[in-house]
Amino acid sequence: MTGIIISDDTQQLATPTLPDFLQSDLTQCASLPSLPTVAIRVLEVAGYPDATLNDYAHAIERDPALTLRLISLANSAFYARHHTETHSCLEATSRLGLDATLAAVMSFSLWRDRQADDQIQRIWGRSIVAALAARYLAEQLCPDQSNFVFTAALLQDIGMLALMAVYPRDAQELYTTMPLSHSQISDGEHTRFGCDHPSVGGWLAARWGVPASLAQAISDSHGEISTRDGIPRFCLRLSGLIADAWLSSTPSQLLAVLISKLEPVDIASSISLSELLNSVESQLPPLADLFDLTMPFAHDHEALVTQAQHLLFQQTLSLNARLDAQQQEIESLRQRQTELEERSRRDPLTGLANRAWLEEQLHLHFALCREEERTMSVVFIDLDHFKKLNDRFGHQTGDRVLERFGHVLGSLAREGDLAGRYGGEEFLIILPGETAKGAQRFAQRIAKRLAETPMEMIDGRELFVSVSIGIACLSDGGFSNGRELIDAADQSMYFIKRTGRGGISLYGH
């Protein structure tokens, strides 16, 4: 049997210590929840390695009222698994087991004020419902730990009693409007006291000298619902949420939240909420009577769980609808962003790349081709006599010519090429991986298409345009950057301009 040594075991808790001011106030509080002589004697007996049930019974019998309560508890529906009644403390202790006996002794000792206010009634009421739920869960999932889980669940909120004793006004303000969610209670406690009541409860239990494992379980009782910390912790933490739902004015809503939290837990499929709630309801009345508590009793648990599942289904549908709407909005925004980015790269008149995008892509391709030891070419084009065309036929005609020439370039550009308007009537085509001869053939196709395709109809007459084209290839010069490559192609283009226009010139050839 694990012994209990009466000492301050708070340093053994694997949790952060309490804030200094709180620990000091707790230590100095004269009205802090404490255990009477009989309860301390029971703990002393538990500290003996060879202690027997008879030793426990003799220690408890020193308090006749406590003895009667234990016998009453042992004869309650919760523990009376056969028809034989217990009449002695030894029989009661044997039936309850060591953990439950210890829990009952401590609970009866702490629960002295039978006319306590509503807050204390609610605290103990939640603890009893949680203990019954925890016991049921543990019997299904970890039977050998059921007494331990029951005890930890029953004492999981004793930290509230301590905080109410030390800071009655703050605790009264917080707990009078106590929300149904213990996570909200925890947030309020952290704001007011620097930590929450499970930590205080674990510290208090350790100070009494209970086993470190029990004090730690109390401290951890309000953690995340998962099995990572072991099945007993899972049962303990889940029991509190079940108690919250039981005591709620809207139990189906909290059960729906609970069901959603259980979905990712593997062992959740082995838990029947309906059977659990029925078990709690059948065993709650005698325990509530034992503690002089007025408890709400739920009805038709099958309908309650069904309603919770329906609420969860409706919430899931609503959430999916919102997610779909948000996804559509995100897609719309993404599409809008893509359109804006595309528009920022395009010349609005011709639909080709604008100068900024041309230069950015040229620098990228230039660096990549140099790194991969590949060649590339650029083709610089200027429409011949475009100023005269504007002066004679007007700028609207000139814009239509530019637009249609842009369509010609776009139709001739291959995948991987980038054609754009460099400015005014000047155009640039980037040809990654293309040699000077290959670029020349591309330029010849442009000239041939222009010779065959009128760019405008004026008074029923076709208007053809010619272009001057300069080509520069990375392999034909010691170019250090893309800007120098453009300048070389520009120089070649101007050579054609000076020698009659309507031709093609290769830089360095």
UniProtKB/TrEMBL annotation:
Domain HDOD stretches: 32-224
GO MF assignments: diguanylate cyclase activity
Enzymatic reactions: 2 GTP = 3',3'-c-di-GMP + 2 diphosphate
Keywords on record: Coiled coil, Nucleotidyltransferase, Transferase
E.C. no: 2.7.7.65
Top-level taxon: Bacteria
GGDEF domain span: 374-509
Enzyme class of the recorded protein, top EC level: transferase
Coiled coil: 316-343
UniProt-listed CDD domains: GGDEF (cd01949)
UniProt protein name: diguanylate cyclase
Organism name: Vreelandella gomseomensis
